[in-house]
Amino acid sequence: MMRRRSILGKLLLPALLLLAACTTVPPTNVHQPMTARPQYRPETLAASLAATGSIYQAGASRTLFEDRRARYVGDTITVTITENTSAATKSNTAVSKTGSISAVAGPFVGFPAKTFQSGELKANSSNAASGKGDAAANNVFTGTITVTVIEVLPNGNLLVSGEKQVAIGHGQEYIRLSGVVNPYFVNAANTVASSQIADARIEYKESGTISEAQVMGWLARFFLTFLPF
Predict the structure, then answer these.
(1) What does the DSSP assignment read for 165-212?
(2) How far apart are CA 139 and CA 24, in angstroms?
């Protein structure tokens, strides 16, 4: 009985590993980490150490006319994704080359045969090559995502990163974004366009049965890699 269970366990283990591989999160190239907790500012720490008993707390309050745009680690910024890129290239090449040669020799003295009395040599060559290529790409990506400031650079720029997961049925969609934001580009509503983010890394990936159906199986990829035909 124990031997039967061990054999059953060995058979079920690969199946469980395959199922686990099907539900893995797609890899990402955005800046890590994707979120960060707010850091304690000096005035907040001082206020927590010395409680005055007043409603007003210097570390937790913000003035009425203070700018609400993000500027600290842990603050959030809403990014409007408006990526519309298009590219097209066209090439046409035609090369041709022709050549001919002709030579005639007079009668050869001393040869009794008529075949060697005179000779004529002709040669023709022709080379032609042509090529044509067209390529076009058009990508449109629109949407919104709220990211977190994970680092404040020495010059004041903000390194932001964030992820949005949307589960629809048995599949999941992952929208990820990271990059460097200049605080002057952030408007009063704490929103910035994706076209104004430096070193922007924007990803839209899926996981689930629909995305797996579009990927070639590992065994087919193996034979496709090694077979020469």
Answers:
(1) EEEETTEEEEEEEEEEE-GGGS-TTSEEEGGGEEEEEEEEEEESHHHH
(2) 26
pLDDT tens figures, 132-174: 888 888 888 899 999 999 999 999 999 999 999 888 877 888 8
**CA 203 to CA 178: how far, in whole Å?**
9
d(CA 35, CA 151): 10
- Integer Cα distance of 180 and 31 in angstroms: 10
> Which stretch of DSSP H or E encloses residue 89?
strand 76-105
Residue carrying structure tokens 């008993």? 53
**Tokens linked to 140:** 């449109």
CA dist 1 and 224 (Å) reads 43
Is the pLDDT reported for residue 21 higher than 50?
no
Closest CA to 60 of 70, 47, 77: 47
Dihedral class, residue 76 (left if φ above 0, else alpha if ψ from -120 to 50, else beta)? beta
Q: How many CA atoms lie within 13 A of 103 on its CB side?
A: 5
Q: List Cβ neighbours of 81 (8 Å cut-off, separation of 6 or more).
A: 141, 142, 143, 144, 145, 177, 194, 202
- Say if pTM beats, i.e. exceeds, 0.90: no
> Quick one: tokens of 229?
């035909």
Strand-pair partners of 81: 143
